[in-house]
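Exercise 3.2. Students should predict the tertiary structure of the chain below and write it as C-alpha cells, then compare their answer with the key that follows.

Predict this chain's 3D structure.
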Amino acid sequence: MSHPTASVPSAAASPPPSDERLADLLASCVGDPARVTTALPRRVAAAHDASPYLFTPRAVVRVASAGEVGALMAGARAAGLPVTLRSGGTSLAGQAGGDGVQIDVRTHWREAEILDDGRRVRLQPGVTVRQANARLARYGRRLGPDPASESACTIGGLVANNSSGMNCGTRDNAYRTIESLRFVLPSGTVVDTADADADAALLAREPELHAGLLRLRDRVRGSAASRATVERLFAMKNTMGYGLNSFLDHDTPADMLARLMVGSEGTLGFVAEAVFRTVPLLPHTATGLLVLPGLAEATDCLPVLLAAGARTVELLDAASLRVAQRSGEPVEALRRLTVSGHAALLVEFAEDSAEALEHTVAAAEPALRLLPTLTPAALTREAGERNNLWRLRKGLYTAVAGARRPGTTALLEDVAVPMDRLTATGEGLIDLFARHGYDDAVIFGHARDGNLHFMLTQEFEVMKRLRADGHGRTAQGVADRVARHWEGTVTGVRTALKAAHAVPLPVTRAATRAMRGLGAGELVPEWTADMPRSGPERPAARHPAGAEAVFFAACIGSLFAPEESDGGSGGSARAFLRLCERAGVPVAVPDGLGGLCCGTPWQSKGYTRGHRTMAARALDALWAASDHGRLPVVCDASSCTHGLERLADALSEPDRARYAALRFVDSVAFTAERLLPALPAVRPLASMALHRTCSTAHLGADEALRTVAAALSADVTVPDSWGCCAFAGDRGLLHPEVTAVATARQAAEINSRSYDAYASCNRTCEIGMTRATGRPYRHILELLDEATAPAVPGA
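Answer key:
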C-alpha cells in the first residue's frame, strides 16, 4: 500500500502565532508568498485524506524547492507547530494529515527522468506510480512496487511507507529498489546519496547525527540477538517502525540514513528525489480466479502455485466474495456460487513474451488440475476478462467502505506472518470477528507473501456496548439504583464536596490518593487545590401561564459551582431564568427535576439498566411538562442537550416512538433566537476568548454560540488551534493529564494575550479550560446575564 508523506515533529518553542503572523512567517520561507494560505476553505479542503481521520491544518504551503522545505521546517519549529508533508493523500492510516503546517509537495514536484534506457529512473515525490510506469513502459520496464492505489498514490508516499504491492514481495519493494535519495533533514541540511562525497558531507554538516548512526550500527551488529531479531522481522513484508535492517545492509551513515527514510512516514525528513532501479515489464499475462472450499484449502494451494511459477497470488475470504457478488457485474466464477465458508485465490502468470507465457502455463496446468477448486481452474489472457478480475480485487476496499452502515467508519489493517502460519492467522481473525460481532469484516491480501489485510467497519458508539458487556449484574444493579435515587446521589456528592473543602488540602489529597491506590482510580479523582466547590440546588418547579419552553437545568451545574464573578451569578441555570424574565419569556420547570438527568453518565459508561431507568423517568416527566411535545425542552449544558437528544435510544421501539415529538434545544440556541432580540441593551465587553464544545458542533449550535458572543463583544477569538478539551464528563477529573495534553496548544494561544472574559457553554469544559489556561472560563449566559442586568448605582 502507498501512503503520502507524514509529519515531521517540531519543538514547541513559543505560543502558536495568529493566522496573520503565521502567514507572514511562512511567506518569508518561500519565494512566492502567494503559495502560502491560511484561508479557511483551503485548510478545510486539506483536512481530508483517504483515512477516517480529520486534521485541519493551520496553514497550507505549496513549496517549490528543497531549500524552501528546510526553511519551513525551521520556521514551523520557531512557531511551535508541527509540519506534515502531503502529496497524494491516499493514506488509509492518517499519515497525510496534521493540524500544524501542511506542506504540499505534489504541485511543484512532478518531474521524472529516465536513465540507462529505463533501467533506472529519477522521480520527484509528486509523480504518481501510474505516471512513472507509463514513462517506463516504452522501455519495457516498470517500478518494483505495485500498490493497488497506483493511479493516485505518489512517489513521496511510496518511499515514506516502503510500499510494496501485489507482486514485488520483499525483493522489489521501495527499500530494495531505491538506488539513491536526495532528502532534507529538519535542520535544513540537504543530503544526496548519489554524490560520491555524501557521507563526508553528512559528517561535516551533522556530526552528532553521523556519530549516532555509527553507534547504532555497531550496537545492532555487535549483538547476536539483535541481528537475529532484525533478520527474522525483515525476512517478511514489514513496514512497522523504522527500517532497522538498514544497519545490517549498509555501512556508511549516509546510506543507512537514506534507507531509514524509507518507511519512516516522513518523520525523519523530506525526500525531494529518488532514483530507482526498475524491473522488467512482463506484458504477457494469464489470470484466473480459483474458488476453493475454505481458507485452509486456499492457503494449502500456495506452495503448489508458487512452484508452478505464479507471479501473483491474492487471497479473498468468504466475506470478500460476498461483497464481490454484490457488485454490478460479478465475475463468471461467482455468479452462481452460494458463498458460505469459501475462499478464492486470484492467480496470475506473467512473462516477457507470448511464447514464454505459453510454456509456463502449459507446465503449470497439471498442478492446477490437481487443486481442489469448486470451479474449473481456468486462466484467461483476454484483456477485458483480466481487467474484471483485477477490478474485483482492487475495488474491494471501495466496495466494502461504500456498503458500510451509516455512522460507521471503515478501518483497514495489515498483518504479515510466515507462510506456515497464514492459515491459522486467517482462521483466527475470522473467529475474532465472529466473537466480537464484526459480521461484515473482510480478509484479503498478498497470500504469496503471508501478508493479509483485514477490514472492518467500526461503529464507535460502542465502544459503549463493549463497556456494557464488561459490567456484571452487580455493577448494573448498583447503577440502576443510582438512577432511581439520583436526587439523593447528587445531594451526597454536593455534601462530600463541601466537607472536603472544609478539610485542610493535604489531608483531603492524602485521602483521595489512598482511595485511588486501593483500586478506585476510575471513581475517585485525586484532590487538587482547584477542585470546584459544590453548586447551587437546581431550580424549583414552576408552571407559569403561557410558558414558551420547559427548562431542564443540567445537574452538572448543581454538582459544581461556577467560576464566580464579583457579583456571583449562581451559575448558568439561574442566569438563563433571569434572562428569560428580563426578555419577558415565561418558561416552565418540570416537577421532580432534582431526580432527573440526561442519562449521559450511564450511557457513556455502558450501564444500560440505569440508562433505561433514567430515560423512562426523565422522558415521562418532560413529556408531561412540555404538553406532550408542544413546548421545546431547553437545557443549559451543551453536552446534556446532546444527551437528551439520544435519551430515547435506551428504550424499546414502541416507547421510543411515544416520545418522538419531544424537541430539545440548547439554551444558547434558544437565547440567540428568542431572548436576544427582547433583551435590554448589552454593556459590551472589550474582548472575549470563546471555547466551542464538541457538543455544540454535534448539535449544530456553533453559529448560535458565536451570535451570543458577538452580542457581548466585537472582539471574540476562537483559537485557531481549538480542539476537544478532553474533559469528557468525569474523565478530566480522573485523568487530568489527558486534558492537559489536549488543551496545551490552544491554552498557549489563548495566553498569548489577555481578554476581558473567557466563555464556553458547558460546565465541565469550563473547568478543563480554566485549568489549562489559569483563566476563569464561565458559561456565556452568565456573562450575558451580567451584561444586561440593571446597572447598580455607584458600581
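Discussion points: DSSP finds 36 helices and 26 strands in the chain. Confidence is low (pLDDT under 50) at residues 1-13.
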